[in-house]
Amino acid sequence: RARPPLFLPLACGDAEGRLEALFGRVRAIQDKSGRFDMLLCVGNFFGSTSDTEWTEYRTGAKKAPIQTFVLGANDQETVRYFPDVSGCELAENITYLGRRGVFSSTSGLQIAYLSGTESQDEPAPAYSFSSKDVTELKTSLLSTPNFKGVDILLTSPWPRDVGNFANSPGKIDTKKCGSTLISDLAASLKPRYHFAALEKAYYERLPYRNHTVLQETPQHVSRFIALADVGNTSKKKYLYAFSIVPMSLMDPAELVKQPQDVTENPYRKSRKEAQKTKALVCEEPACQFFFDLNKHQGKKRPSDGKERGNSQPKQAKNPSQPTGPCWFCLASPEVEKHLVVSIGTHCYLALAKGGLLPDHVLILPIGHYQSVVDLSPEVMEEVTKYKSALKEFFRSKGKRYVLFERNYRSQHLQLQVIPVPLDCTSEDIKESFITQAQEQQIDLLEIPEHSDITQVARPGTPYFYVELDTGEKLFHRIRRSFPLQFGRAVLASPALLALPERADWRRCAAGRPEEAAQACAFRRDFQPFDLAPPE
């Protein structure tokens, strides 16, 4: 079966007329990472000093390097740049979407948009929207058969109360800033991605639910991302790259998978209060597994971790509340990108922070997946390719790898890959793991070489497993507690690497320059074995 189309958009905050800076940055990104499909601009595309730069694009002297879609004016001063309120081409490759509406690509990607800032007046000024505009946009979509939501929502103001139940938005007070009409619009349209600007701040909110746990059929999650202004001196993020398959083409079970860091819907409370209805039944907190940074390797958002079909999986007891974005989702600003050594379509490789060895590497999904058993087929396929590439790479250096995963007190799948000398036989490695497991009353059992881990562990099951580059596997179902450093401690033991002093990653922390140098060396050596870049 043919794969559904994958779109690669870029989203941008307030350009403020700084088009050379914006398009220069886009060119640099495309030169490094390949072509993106479109640039979606929210906030103020034009500024008070736009004329000089804009004239070159309007006249055709210069051309935007990517198909660019922009929202309309947010103040009277810039209304003059938008000659047709219903939308028009402003220059080659630069299109004004219009006052409000829905843009659908030929492959089904659906983008809803609303230009301007909120106004209480009817009719609203040319640079504003009113409750009537929001109602008409909602009605046009909600009246369509089987409406589930839109792929992307573009607005300039933030939605009011977006910070409810969420990670901190910094200095922005989300109870005072933004628009209540946009909150209502977002709650109704259920965008998978919602972009906004105007506050000169970058804020990536944790994904939130669009259904009531145990009362409604699971639905997809929404992600709100606010972007800063182009070329800001504080170096806040103003460009956001992401990939998306149109909702209409996704497998329904894949679409509704829930990331582990999902939160309650931020708008439900405000809508409820506005309607003065009875309080809803108290919902269970989100199933979150934010790990103790003192006990984990590496640093590092969402793609989609998950619920299967229409059934609601059991939630973890007393899950910790979110304290920030995922440290391992590649799109997260928290990722220590200097440790990344290879990026595929669905996965990436990064050196382990405080690695047991300089070439101790992690295989990580780009999106948010809790464990191997949660991976979609295409992600699993790429994990397998990375395993093969690493096997060939390490064998070329007279080594073999040992891989392990601990799906316990972890939030994002990390496959730890550590090389050992080739003269460490499979039997030596298995014996070391099994012996040390027995000493700690851990039942580590060998499972058939060609069996799939999903055959012995269901999603949500805590487990630890070891895999050799021969395909041999050892598995332990975690029922109570489990030593967090077990896998690393076995490999560091005298029977294998004889590096007991490096059993705890916290004692192996290196400075950023040293980490960057190690990553550069690994990247160079691994390059001949790296996966071919996606076409």
UniProtKB/TrEMBL annotation:
<feature type="domain" description="Cwf19-like C-terminal">
    <location>
        <begin position="316"/>
        <end position="424"/>
    </location>
</feature>
<dbReference type="InterPro" id="IPR040194">
    <property type="entry name" value="Cwf19-like"/>
</dbReference>
<dbReference type="GO" id="GO:0061632">
    <property type="term" value="F:RNA lariat debranching enzyme activator activity"/>
</dbReference>
<protein>
    <recommendedName>
        <fullName>CWF19-like protein 1</fullName>
    </recommendedName>
</protein>
<feature type="domain" description="Cwf19-like protein C-terminal">
    <location>
        <begin position="442"/>
        <end position="531"/>
    </location>
</feature>
<dbReference type="GO" id="GO:0071014">
    <property type="term" value="C:post-mRNA release spliceosomal complex"/>
</dbReference>
<dbReference type="InterPro" id="IPR036265">
    <property type="entry name" value="HIT-like_sf"/>
</dbReference>
<feature type="compositionally biased region" description="Polar residues">
    <location>
        <begin position="310"/>
        <end position="322"/>
    </location>
</feature>
<dbReference type="Pfam" id="PF04677">
    <property type="entry name" value="CwfJ_C_1"/>
</dbReference>
<feature type="region of interest" description="Disordered">
    <location>
        <begin position="296"/>
        <end position="322"/>
    </location>
</feature>
<comment type="similarity">
    <text>Belongs to the CWF19 family.</text>
</comment>
<dbReference type="Pfam" id="PF04676">
    <property type="entry name" value="CwfJ_C_2"/>
</dbReference>
<dbReference type="InterPro" id="IPR006767">
    <property type="entry name" value="Cwf19-like_C_dom-2"/>
</dbReference>
<dbReference type="InterPro" id="IPR006768">
    <property type="entry name" value="Cwf19-like_C_dom-1"/>
</dbReference>
<dbReference type="GO" id="GO:0000398">
    <property type="term" value="P:mRNA splicing, via spliceosome"/>
</dbReference>
